[in-house]
Amino acid sequence: MARVIEENGSFVLRDEWHIEDVIGQAENMNIELTEDKAIEVLYWLAKCHDANYGINWDSIDSAIQFVTKEYI
Fold first, then answer.
1. Is 22 exposed, middle or buried (0-12, 13-18, 19+ CB in 10 A)?
2. CB-CB contact of 34 with 68 (8 Å)
3. How many domains would you assign to the chain?
4. Does residue 47 fall inside a structural domain?
5. In Å, how far are 9, 10, 14, 47, 69 from 19, measured between CA atoms?
């Protein structure tokens, strides 16, 4: 969920994704994901997502598939 916060006297738009989001999405895809793998997905997204599109459910799906090698 995106939110505007004040940080160090400046305003920032922050879009947060949590490990629970990743694990829940993996379950929707019928992929079993450990907590360690879910953390790996978050790191992969932080490093490799396309900033033109941001992080969304499609990019999370792709990251889960990449990390787990479970291509549907």
1. buried
2. no
3. 1
4. yes
5. 29, 27, 16, 16, 19
Note the helical H segments in 1-72. Answer: 19-28, 35-48, 57-68
2 within a domain of the structure (yes/no): no
Secondary structure (3-state) at 2: strand
| Residue range of the domain that includes 37 | 18-68
pLDDT at 72: 61
Question: Residue 23 domain-assigned?
Answer: yes
Q: Is residue 5 one of the residues assigned to a domain?
A: no
Give the model confidence (pLDDT) of 46-70 as tens digits.
999 998 999 999 999 999 999 999 8
